[in-house]
Each structure stands twice: as C-alpha cells, then as structure tokens.
Amino acid sequence: MATDQVQTRIPPAEERLAGRLAAQPARRPVTTRKTAIAALTELGQIDRAVYRAVAGTPTPVLDRPVRRLSQAANWSRLWIGIAAAMAAVGGRDSRRAAGAGLVALAVDSAVVNGGFKLAARRRRPDRDSAHVPAGRQVPMPHSASFPSGHTASGFAFADAVGQTLPTAAAPLRLLAGAVGYSRVHTGVHYPGDVVLGALIGSSVGELVGWALRRAGRPGTEGR
Predict the structure, then answer these.
(1) What is the b/e burial string over 113-133, where b = at least 16 CB atoms within 10 angstroms of the residue's CB?
(2) Local confidence pLDDT in tens for the 223 residues of the chain
(3) Are 122 and 193 in contact (CB under 8 A)?
(4) How far apart are alpha carbons 184 and 159 in whole angstroms?
(5) How far, in Å, CA of 21 to CA of 43, rounded?
(6) Number of C-alpha atoms within 13 angstroms, CB side, residue 200?
C-alpha cells in the first residue's frame, strides 16, 4: 500500500513535460509556451478521462474475447502466426508480403522498445484507482506505457504487408486496431499510447516497405 501512495505523488508524463517546458528559458513568445503547456495538460486529462470511461463501462460479453485477443498479440505472436500462414498457403506475393511484415516487426520492436519507451518513460495506468474489472485484466507489463508496443507492431505489420498485398491491408489494420483497443480495455495502456503507437507503427511499416522495394528485396521469397 505504501508503494501506491508513493506512485500517486509522481506526476504523469505529460505534466512532467509541461513542467520542463515551463522551466526552460523563454526562447519563444510567452503566449506560445503557455498554450503548449496548457494543451499538453488538457490532452493528458482527456487521455485519463477516456481511460476511466472505458474502465467504468460494464462489458461482460466482450471482456473474455478482448482479453484473449490482447494476450494473443504478446511478443507479436499473432502477427508471426499470420505471416507463417501467408507463407504456407499463399503464392509468391503472399510470401513476399509475409517477409516484409516480419522485417517491419523487427524494426518496429527496435524503434519502440529501444527508442520511444526509453525516452518517454510514461508510467502505466493505475488500474485499481480506475476500477478496471478483474475479469478483463491481463498481467501489467513492466515497460513504459508510451507508446503501445502491441499496437505499433500490429500497424507496422499491416502497412508493410499491405504494400505488397493490398487486399490484406484493410483486414490487418482492423485487426491491429482491435488489438490496440484491447490494450485500453484490459487496463494496461492509455488511449493516447494506442493512438500514437498506431501512427509510429504505420510509419515504420511504410518505411520498411519502401526500403525493401528500393533495395529490390521486398521480404523473403520462397526459393
């Protein structure tokens, strides 16, 4: 219990960022800095309010399947399984798309876990104070909350695959979005973590697809 009391005295990441902005020497007009600080604070408040709203909405029918979807995406197992199925039963384009998707997963993991999470160091949500139902909870990760790695990997995979296999893009993005929502539903991420995770993942997927096309090696092909 003492740990919870200590944690509540640590301000959220957006408030710490706003504090650093306020402490910096005035290099730009005061009104601009005040607006940026106020916007960060308000966005953080909205983020936490939406999180609490999801936590407080009873969804007994959805809780179990959403929890299972969230767990299926641990360590990118969901996307690796889809890539394996594409390579096994698809044609040449499917194998190329699967290879591109796997490359995107690897790059995304390095960017998110080795970059953004270390830099942001946002604390995970407090599920107890938000009263997230126990029936929908999954184990709370120890890594930083921002951005959502599950969401980022899903969108990175979807965008990389979609560049080679356009018909797969929409279904995979929908699935990635569902995984992203599951991370809020289970209480391990704020909505903002998911939204920005999707943007980061999509950017990684697009960049990987472009790089592979430029290199003339769009993924791993069957021989």
Answers:
(1) eeebbeebebbbbebeeeebb
(2) 333 333 444 556 666 655 665 566 555 566 887 888 888 889 999 999 999 999 999 999 999 999 999 999 999 999 999 999 999 999 999 999 999 999 999 999 999 999 999 999 999 999 999 999 999 999 999 999 999 999 999 999 999 999 999 999 999 999 999 999 999 999 999 999 999 999 999 999 999 999 998 887 545 444 4
(3) yes
(4) 22
(5) 15
(6) 26
What the block records as the tokens of 144 is 């930083």
Question: Cβ(174)–Cβ(223) under 8 Å?
Answer: no
The whole-model pTM stands at: 0.83
Q: State the Cα angle at 183 between 104 and 180, rounded to 5°.
A: 45
- Enter the tokens of residue 138: 């999954």
- Tell me the domain boundaries of the chain: 10-55, 60-215
Helix axes 60-72, 166-185, angle to 10 degrees: 120
